[in-house]
Fold:
Amino acid sequence: MNIAEEINKRKTFAIISHPDAGKTTLTEKLLLFGGRIHEAGAVKSNKIRKTAMSDFMEIEKQRGISVATAVMSFEYQGLLINILDTPGHKDFAEDTYRTLTAVDSVILVVDSVKGAEEQTEKLMKVCRMRSTPVIIFVNKLDREGKRPFELMDELEEKLDIRVRPLTWPLGMGSMFKGVYNLMEQNLYLFTPGKDRIEEDRLLIKGLEDPMLDEKTGSHAAQLREDVGLIEGVYGSFDEADYREGRTAPVFFGSALNNFGVRELLETFIRLAPHPGPRESDMRSVDPYEEKFSGFVFKIHANLDPRHRDRIAFLRVCSGRFQKDRFFRHVRLGKQVRFATPYSFMAQKKSIIDEAFPGDVVGLYDRGDLKIGDTLTEGEEFTFRGIPSFSPEIFKELVNADPMKSKQLEKGITQLTEEGLVQLFIQELGRRKIIGTVGELQFDVIAYRLKNEYGASCRFERLPFARACWMTAEKPEDLKQFMKYREQQIAYDRDSNPVYFAESEWMLNTIISKNPGIVFHYTSEFKTGGSEKANSAGAA
Ligand code: G4P
Structure:
């Protein structure tokens, strides 16, 4: 097969959700369809249970499991589908944000009872920034949930995206009868049962077919009314709108009962984009180019201090990745070669000889690779779109053992490279400020610094709530601002200046008082893709 055929065979996506909406269950059902696993419960996903803080090692263990399921590939109708797993736990949201940079589309799972939850909103923001195409799966229809039209309104409002139902439920909870496929005009009748693969598909000839009344009783009249409304309110479905990330098609079902999943999968296969072009700092890189390129979006460390190796996850963007071949590590300006590149299948990883755009390769690394690194066949460019996002909790890292400051320095640098936390350095006194999205990471850091590097530390909470990267048309403006606000300025890992705000309100005040400065919520603002705090409002 040539490269073009390989690319046209692939679809790479992530399933995202608020914890407990059903991501793990849905992943498992998709793998069942792909024949990759043969029984439910076989996916030891990196589902991180709600665990007490002191149990963070348990969480790390569970994260360890995630290496095996970081990518799950299966074949379906001649296509190779790569599902990139994302941690459900909110404290590891940064991991998920970065994984989203390595996919071509997303399936978002929403709990029909709970609607659009906090984590869903945040993840969708990242999708919208990148115009990632999104399909929504409304799950748990076997429970008494929100009314479908209400839910559609809520999704549009909270997720800030247009929705277009492609299936529609008949009843819910104990009265759930099935879903109607608005495109094919088929009716799928619901029969509970966890491990079913086949759905009871009823071919009806349009909504007026008397069989509809026969099978669904009083639900038939409601369905006719609903369908009329849907067509009036949402109009026709435009595939281009989906591919450009403007409209999210919506499916209803119950992952646990394997209901509505085949519908979702079949539409996904048809609609979801193949690996597409990626932006670099020099040019747009087309997947069909002959020469290989790719970037690292995730690093997983070996927690065993005797083995310092880590696994870097590389998304192939163009050309052909090959085992034992020399590639250029653009940041370090040197040649690198990998003797044991892995592909990841559910529960199994195996050494591969080659990989193609859309694939994710696991690379053993002894410290050369960090998140955002680009590998090429010689050309000098760096992929964009792997930004840091504003952390939400900030603490100063204080060395608790002055004899071990070198170890602390090395440890924290490496942990930052893994993307576990963000490190900011304040010029004033070389203060180290750690930013995270969850409290859990502070425990993980203290433990790992001690265990893997022999360093002791403590954390002192800082009164900040937001970090904004800054640019200014006139360098003087920025210089002036930074001088005046010295206490609240630090530098990120790439020496970009960052402003720490105590609150959203404070940030808004600062923004309005400093029109010459542009504040950004992410670290990547040079070629677009960043969210401007100024224009987006600081919400
Ligand atoms: P997550 O990965 O998004 O965190 O969610 P997960 O799939 O683990 O599902 C969370 C809970 O919701 C699980 O129950 C799961 O069985 C249940 N669930 C998933 N899909 C459906 C559905 O369609 N209907 C209903 N009623 N429940 C569903 P649990 O009790 O927390 O875990 P478990 O003991 O079943 O694994």
User: Anything to note?
Assistant: The radius of gyration is 24 Å.
